[in-house]
Design a protein that fits this description.
CATH topology: Arc Repressor Mutant, subunit A
Radius of gyration: 19 Å
Strand order of the largest sheet: 1-2
Pfam family, one: MarR_2
Shape: globular
Protein name: DNA-binding transcriptional regulator, MarR family
Helix content: 55-70%
Largest sheet: 2 strands, antiparallel
Number of helices: 7
Strand content: 5-15%
GO molecular function, one term: DNA-binding transcription factor activity
Keywords: DNA-binding
Distance between the termini: 41 Å
CATH architecture: Orthogonal Bundle
Low-confidence stretches: none
Order of helices and strands: HHHHHEEHH
Structural class: mainly alpha
Number of domains: 1
Organism: Amycolatopsis rubida
Mean pLDDT: 91
Length: 152
């Protein structure tokens, strides 16, 4: 047994359960994107911008895990489709932020509503104490997963 196999053999079952959630999330995103004839990166870009607000194309690319040129291509394609818009800064006309359009917001709301309702129904089965423990655990998992992430 090599070192990687030895580590995995001793991993806590909860860690594997989190891995299952991550895989299910990735699969869900792919299915939702397909349902609106987008690819997963396009729908993820809309979700990122909806959650974090306008940002530059390079930052969006970093959050998506794609290169600057790939991010520019994505923004160009989505702008042409009417999902994203470039907005020049009022203070520095050289700076451009990318934002979602009303059309993209409507699509995101439509595709996210069913899974959010299902997740909310499951969450509502928890007691207040259980919910507090789960929120704390998920916050720590999120922090651990974001460790070392360099986003400016």
């Amino acid at each position: 047994m090599d070192e990687n196999q030895a580590v995995l053999a001793n991993v806590d079952e909860t860690t594997f359960a989190v891995r299952g959630v991550i895989e299910a999330s990735r699969d869900l995103m792919a299915r939702m994107a397909k349902s609106v004839e987008m690819n997963a990166n396009d729908l993820t870009a809309i979700a990122i911008l909806n959650h974090h607000g306008p940002m530059g194309p390079v930052e969006l690319g970093r959050r998506l895990g794609i290169s600057g040129p790939s991010a520019t291509t994505l923004v160009d394609r989505m702008e042409e489709a009417g999902y994203l818009a470039r907005v020049r800064s009022d203070t520095d006309r050289r700076r451009v932020a990318v934002t979602v359009t009303d059309s993209a917001r409507e699509i995101a709301a439509a595709v996210w509503r069913p899974p959010i309702e299902k997740l909310d129904a499951v969450s509502r089965t928890l007691s207040a104490a259980e919910s507090a423990v789960v929120r704390d655990f998920l916050a720590r998992i999120t922090e651990a997963m974001n460790e070392g992430r360099e986003i400016s």
